[in-house]
Amino acid sequence: MANQVSESPAERTFQYQHRLPPLPVPSLEGSLAKYLDAVRPFATEEEDQVTAAILKRFGEGIGKDLHQKLLQRARTHRNWLEEWWLDAAYLELRYPSQLNVNFGGPAPYLEHCWPPTEGVQLQRTSVSMWHTLQYWDLLRTERLDPHKNGNVALDMDQFRMLFCTCKVPGVTKDTIINYFKTESEGPCPSHVVVMCKGRFFSFDAVCDGHILTPPELLRQLTNVKQCCEGEPAGDGVAALTSEERTRWAKAREYLIGIDPANKTLLETIQSSLFVVSLDDAKPYATAENYTPLTRETLIGDPTIRWGDKSYNSISFADGTFGSNCDHAPYDAMVLVTQCYYVDQQLKATDGKWKGSETVRPMPLPEELVFTVDDRVRSDIAHAKQQYFETTQDLQVVCYAFTSFGKAAIKQRKLHPDTFIQLALQLAYYRQHGRSGSCYETVMTRRFYHGRTETMRPCTLEAQNWCRIMLNPAASAEAKRKALLLAFNKHNKLMAEAQNGKGFDRHLLGLYLIAKEEGLPMPDLFTDPLYSKSGGGGNFVLSSSLVGYTTVLGAVAPMVHHGYGFFYRIRDDRIVASCSAWKSSPETDAETLFQNLVTSLHEMLHLATTAQL
């Protein structure tokens, strides 16, 4: 990721798409065996026997038929999961997606050239926008290096969804509209939307075929800010995007109904390259404590971000930055790659623009003014109320653990990601006195349009190791042996999931075929152990390694009594964001992080003294 720009025109960004293998369907027998193994940490002896019998019946009966139908679907779809996943995981959900689906994240620029400083918001925004527009140009001209794992090309399709993309609410199901085109495919929208104090402004980021320079962008941003200074705030139509999906869909239909011009304004926002949000908040985060900034990106002002947009770039009054993105069109690694590119460019130039100061004559930003009436104002007020009620309930912490990082872990010949996942299991067990069902995101991008698979880190081996670690009578040797077994199991499951041999997406496919065909729901999915172990979106720990770069993200928990846990790993530090619902008496994100710190120290000590 360090060298992202293709020097040679020989390799184009999307050139390997047609060569990628189709997403495989794992064997039914293999998936059921893995599933049984995965639910065992949560089962009593009796539950284990009941579930084993259910799986036997399923594998010999209805499961066999459903599996055959899935194989049939895979013959006509290069990715049998793609449409299903988009619908089931995102577009059919009815709860508000801005907090429950979107991911936020702090930009890392404050760690080097851009520490929190007042009075530089617009100047810094113009430079950061310019680098982002350069990245858009790399995609447009296919000069961004295609990603590879060794020599294996990875799917790049999700990168088409970063710019000019938006989700549109529907009464029963949302849709995604994507206006992006590469140069060879044709023209692509080049305007950006700037949101400030509940108002919308738009301007073209390209003039006479050239991207606007930072001084030119600064002129446009200054104009927007001047228009809003000392004026009453706008109607805050954007708050509607934070509403329950069906309510938002109906409010949108009404908005278009009262004035057809509103439809054009909505389309201008939807098709824009991205949204720039000028936020008056001053989070004042530090490299050690990202909490205030991370919190603002997740639960900040709903009137200055478009919750359905694939990319809201948020610029704060203290000169720091963050983002909030709809998760439906792409996974976090797309934004991580883009943000890391900007971070590296800023670092290389010390955050300064060293080019021409000339500002070409060009049209000033145009304000997008919606026609609203009392009903729309009432809809906006309702949306804001439910948003603030929910956001006030979300606890977010984000800290850097600086005692050690990737270098010390690898020195002990251990996988850094597995190290963190097992530390998380131990932290949860220490805090709650039991194992926590856990979802870890695994990329399946070696397959055509591959997105993710679930890896379940709470294995029997991990559970056994946690119990031994918390047993004062256990010897260091017993702890070491149990740790190695847990490590090996985790690494094995991770490799299988990356290679299309996970089981969660397979089971989802079988479930959706039964549902589509109106068949009675198989016992496997109604068995209490299915949801108790995390199935059906019930994971207590929703976790993801955001990568080995400077970029981090954050999400809300998957369930009310759960945690959202994102982390990044650097040579000398581990930075983690942890969220929980305050109204859950069981959970506390701050305590979980402190328990994680304890676990990390204990594990490194164990690995050092035992010379693993």
TrEMBL record:
Ranges for domain Choline/carnitine acyltransferase come to 23-596
Task: Please state the protein's primary subcellular location.
Answer: other
Question: Which residues are the active-site ones?
Answer: H327
Biological process annotations from GO: fatty acid metabolic process
The name this protein goes by in its record: Peroxisomal carnitine O-octanoyltransferase
Keyword presence, Transferase: yes
Q: Which reaction does this enzyme catalyse, per its entry? A: 4,8-dimethylnonanoyl-CoA + (R)-carnitine = O-4,8-dimethylnonanoyl-(R)-carnitine + CoA; octanoyl-CoA + (R)-carnitine = O-octanoyl-(R)-carnitine + CoA
Q: In which pathway does it act?
A: Lipid metabolism; fatty acid beta-oxidation
Question: Which cellular compartments is it found in?
Answer: Peroxisome
- Single GO MF descriptor: carnitine O-octanoyltransferase activity
Q: Name one GO cellular component term.
A: peroxisome
Keyword field: Acetylation, Acyltransferase, Fatty acid metabolism, Lipid metabolism, Peroxisome, Transferase, Transport
For this protein, the Enzyme Commission number is 2.3.1.137
User: What PANTHER family does UniProt report for this protein, alphabetically?
Assistant: CARNITINE O-ACYLTRANSFERASE, PEROXISOMAL CARNITINE O-OCTANOYLTRANSFERASE
For this protein, the record's InterPro entries field holds:
Carn_acyl_trans, Carn_acyl_trans_N, CAT-like_dom_sf, Cho/carn_acyl_trans, Cho/carn_acyl_trans_2
- The enzyme's first-digit EC class, named in words, is transferase
Family, similarity comment: Belongs to the carnitine/choline acetyltransferase family.
Q: Which classification does the entry list for the species?
A: Eukaryota, Metazoa, Chordata, Craniata, Vertebrata
Q: List the coiled-coil residues.
A: none
Question: What Pfam families does the annotation carry?
Answer: Carn_acyltransf (PF00755)
